[in-house]
Amino acid sequence: MGWGGWVGAGCGGSAPGYDVRLQVQSVENPQYRGTLHCFKSIIKQESVLGLYKGLGSPLMGLTFINALVFGVQGNTLRALGHDSPLNQFLAGAAAGAIQCVICCPMELAKTRLQLQDAGPARTYKGSLDCLAQIYGHEGLRGINRGMVSTLLRETPSFGVYFLTYDALTRALGCEPGDRLLVPKLLLAGGTSGIVSWLSTYPVDVVKSRLQADGLRGAPRYRGILDCVHQSYRAEGWRVFTRGLASTLLRAFPVNAATFATVTVVLTYARGEEAGPEGEAVPAAPAGPALAQPSSL
């Protein structure tokens, strides 16, 4: 079986949120000229803390998302009967679809917090207050705004992610005891994160625009297709790559580091392996064999 695991190809990979500001800014009156200008402007106007607006929301849901993704991916792969590239994709896609239940409200809060004004004029005090206010005004429908676009992003993205990671770890020969195992896992995890983002990034732009719609002024979009149509008509195809550079810059190190951490933690958490008769046998002198994340 491959070395499948999850590192937040989608919402779990949330980090400093200048990508959202780039994705939703108005073409008629753009506030930022690009990733670097956005980065500098946020620090100048809001200090370094402005880069981490909305970070509490992803952190709140991270544990639940990891539990869902690991469980669903591993069980789906076992239920499919054998390990193959297609089954890796299907298991990852199933995991991505299920975790949208948590990911969508979490990203809605993150988006709203990142776009609100700084200082006393801010609308929301934090992630929970943001979701509570949205629920009070719009009910469950408001909490789940952008669910369809999140589903369209996460399902194929996680499928591509698991498939890419499995293929890379096999090609690199990631085996327990390999002195270069950790660098190989870092390379495979980081590359897989980039590929997964590239596969569905335009959908992420649409999702961000839908979740931010109506925050400042009257709502503009009637749905996903209308958002795509209006965005393309106003700004051309480049609108669907806005913020991509900042996303990819964080995708490699975040995904690489998380994969290495997950593998090491699972390895030493298990500590002992089951013998042929179900007896616990000590790990080899060189250290315990590396755990397979998707076998959870």
Automatic annotation (TrEMBL):
Pfam families registered for this protein in UniProt: Mito_carr
Membrane topology: Multi-pass membrane protein
Region listing for Disordered, in residue ranges: 275-296
Gene3D superfamilies, A to Z: Mitochondrial carrier domain
SUPFAM superfamilies xrefs: Mitochondrial carrier (SSF103506)
GO molecular function annotations of the record: basic amino acid transmembrane transporter activity; organic cation transmembrane transporter activity
Superkingdom classification of source: Eukaryota
GO cellular component terms, semicolon-separated: mitochondrial inner membrane
PROSITE patterns to which the protein is assigned, alphabetical: SOLCAR (PS50920)
Protein's GO biological process: mitochondrial L-ornithine transmembrane transport
InterPro entries: MCP, MCP_dom_sf, MCP_transmembrane, Mitochondrial_Carrier
Transmembrane region(s): none
The protein's name in its UniProt record: Mitochondrial basic amino acids transporter
Organism: Pan troglodytes
Solcar repeat ranges, renumbered to this chain: 1-79, 83-171, 178-268
Catalysed reactions listed for this entry: L-arginine(in) = L-arginine(out); L-lysine(in) = L-lysine(out); L-histidine(out) + L-arginine(in) = L-histidine(in) + L-arginine(out); N(omega)-methyl-L-arginine(in) + L-arginine(out) = N(omega)-methyl-L-arginine(out) + L-arginine(in)
Keyword entries, A-Z: Amino-acid transport, Membrane, Mitochondrion, Mitochondrion inner membrane, Repeat, Transmembrane, Transmembrane helix, Transport
Sequence ranges of Low complexity compositional bias: 277-296
Family: Belongs to the mitochondrial carrier (TC 2.A.29) family.
Subcellular location field: Mitochondrion inner membrane
